[in-house]
Amino acid sequence: MQGKDYVLLTANAGVLICCNGKKIMADALHSEKTNRFSRVPDNVLRQAVNGEGDFAETDIALVTHDHPDHYNRNWTMRLLERNTAIQLVTPVRDFAERKNVYILSRPKETFRLAGIDITCKRLLHDGTEYASIANYGYMLDTGGTRILLLGDGAMDAKGIAAFAEGFEPDLALLNFPFLTLKRGRDIMDRVIGAKQTIVFHFPEPGDDINGYIQSAQRVLLKEYENDPRIRLLFQSMQKVPIETEF
């Protein structure tokens, strides 16, 4: 697995997951810089929608929810137009009429697409002001490697335990407050318990006016002594290898 399986960051919580010969984009296409978070650089967006470099022969694109730091309609349309075989799973209804687009609406839905088992469950979005947003988490099995993504799911131990019941992740991709906040660490360690954790949804270093990256680095050193099972992903096109055996 080492050397060929990895997670690549586009920006924020946008990733390309390459695992067991499968390629999955999740929240990878967004182009609006927000007050706290970065946009995906144009050259990375072009590579992604044109299927170039690491993005060649991507199997599936996932969207967790319709927020500008996770999703952009125009770039997603280009992806679908230029990659007719790619399959899109999303709660956003922009392309409901298109072939190979699966619109999420129920609390739980399951698919087997491109040889990947996908379980999608609705999760409450973090922040009471976003309670009406349809946020979906995903549990993926790429052929023996189990991967968990929560989108912007709230740090609710009971809700996440119910979400992931019976699913033992090899890899979890979690927003940085799961590392920097005590209640987040409790969930990461005691509820999710993945063999490997990648922490993301940081702004790019040049945009990190609040010091989120440094805060995470300090906590990783202080609380985990830089445990190699926890990695930070914070710069566009940065790669972290998937390593579930230490």
Would you give an account of this structure?
This protein has 246 residues and is of the alpha/beta class. It has one domain (6-235): Ribonuclease Z/Hydroxyacylglutathione hydrolase-like (Metallo-beta-lactamase, Chain A, 4-Layer Sandwich). Helices cover 22% and strands 28% of the residues. A seven-stranded mixed beta sheet has the order 6-5-4-3-2-1-14, with no helix packed on it. The protein has a seven-stranded mixed beta sheet with strand order 7-8-9-10-11-12-13. β7 (108-113) and β8 form a beta hairpin. α1 (42-50) runs parallel beside α2 (73-82). The longest helix has 13 residues, at 212-224. The protein is globular and about 50 Å long. The two termini are 12 Å apart. The model has no long low-confidence stretch (mean pLDDT 96).
Q: H/E order of the elements?
A: EEEHEHEEEEEEHEHHEHEE
- Rg, please? 17 Å
- Helix-strand makeup class: alpha/beta
CATH topology: Metallo-beta-lactamase, Chain A
**What is the terminal separation in angstroms?**
12 Å
Mean pLDDT: 96
* Helical coverage, percent range: 10-25%
| pLDDT < 50 stretches | none
The level 1 CATH classification is Alpha Beta
Give a quick account of the main beta sheet: strands, pairing sense, barrel closure.
7 strands, mixed
The coarse silhouette is globular
Indicate the CATH architecture: 4-Layer Sandwich
Give the helix tally.
Answer: 6
CATH homologous superfamily assignment = Ribonuclease Z/Hydroxyacylglutathione hydrolase-like
